[in-house]
TrEMBL record:
Residue stretches in coiled coil: 26-53
Taxonomic source organism: Aquiflexum gelatinilyticum
GO function term, MF aspect, one: polyphosphate kinase activity
Protein name (database record): ADP/GDP-polyphosphate phosphotransferase
Stored InterPro entries: P-loop_NTPase (IPR027417), Polyphosphate_phosphotransfera (IPR016898), PPK2-related (IPR022488), PPK2_PA0141 (IPR022486)
Residue span, Polyphosphate kinase-2-related domain: 31-254
One of the Pfam families matching this protein, by short name: PPK2
Subunit structure: Homotetramer.
Organism superkingdom: Bacteria
Family membership: Belongs to the polyphosphate kinase 2 (PPK2) family. Class I subfamily.
Length: 281
């Protein structure tokens, strides 16, 4: 990246191109990154305005991030909460259930994490673990899976009737891009902690994941709680589009005053019934 001092001394585009060659900097990538950072800050400002509205109106909002491993769920959540008031927001990332929790109704530990009045919560994976990961990996029985699939639409309808808004994102990624990200994690000491034994099965069990994911969409995509698919081969694009989608669901004072682009790209983010054939969803 260019230093602030270097940019201050640049007077013309020709000088900028020449400097980029000297420094070995990809100018197109640098410009794209700068535009992304600028747009991200504007959308994060809009999200802060939305949070003020949520607090003032005592709304309850739960945003669920599901998807294949390495699809960028955690990175997107980080951008959502970066500048929010932590007293009126939170991230839910539950570890595997304890012995006590395994003896409870499956939804019970998630109910305890639902947003209170005036809060927005972000779920880094959710009760939908039982729809895809658990049956694929053998972490639940067939009966437990079938019971969950029967109960979840009713569970979400109860949340809807009680006034809790649930936004369900499925972060999609191509098989090739997932492998690239796995390789990048293993080659970076700062990211190796992200790689788990389950990740090792991600490519091997790709088709089985697809089968259960398709069943999940078919059985749990409803008018009151639809699935929203986000294509994430471009991480930065996915972050911006998911932010825009959440903002699009509300009317709040000052909306749009940042001049941020609040219109979604339907080729990147779309409801399940508008299924895009470009990738294997």
């Amino acid at each position: 990246m260019f230093s602030a001092e270097q940019l201050e001394n640049i007077k013309t585009r020709k000088e900028l191109v020449a400097l980029s060659k000297i420094e070995g900097i990809n100018l197109k990538k640098s410009i794209k990154r700068a535009k992304y950072e600028e747009e991200l800050k504007l959308l994060q400002t809009e999200l802060s305005l939305l949070q003020e509205h949520i607090v003032k109106k005592n709304l309850r909002v739960a945003v669920i991030f599901e998807g294949r491993d390495a699809a960028g769920k955690g990175g997107s959540i980080k951008r959502f909460v970066e500048y929010l008031n932590p007293h009126a927001s939170g991230v839910v990332a539950l570890s595997k259930p304890t012995d006590v929790e395994r003896g409870q109704w499956y939804f019970q530990r998630y109910i305890e994490e639902l947003p209170n009045s005036g809060q927005i919560k972000f779920f880094d994976r959710s009760w939908y673990n039982r729809a895809v990961v658990e049956p694929v990996m053998g972490f639940c029985t067939d009966k437990q899976y079938e019971t969950f699939m029967k109960q979840v639409p009713n569970f979400e309808h109860m949340l809807y009737e009680d006034g809790i808004m649930v936004i369900k994102f499925w972060f999609d990624i191509s098989r090739e891009e997932q492998q690239k990200r796995f390789d990048a994690r293993l080659g970076n000491p700062l990211k190796e902690w992200k790689f788990s034994p389950v990740d090792l099965k991600g490519q091997e069990l790709w088709d089985k994941f697809t089968e259960y994911k398709d069943l999940m969409f078919t059985e749990t995509h409803t008018s009151y709680c639809p699935w929203v698919v986000v294509e994430t081969n471009d991480k930065e694009e996915a972050r911006l589009e998911s932010l825009r989608y959440v903002l699009s669901r509300f009317k709040y004072p000052g909306k749009g005053k940042t001049k941020a682009n609040l219109k979604n790209d339907p080729n990147v983010i779309f409801k399940y019934f508008r299924k895009n054939k470009k990738f294997d969803l």
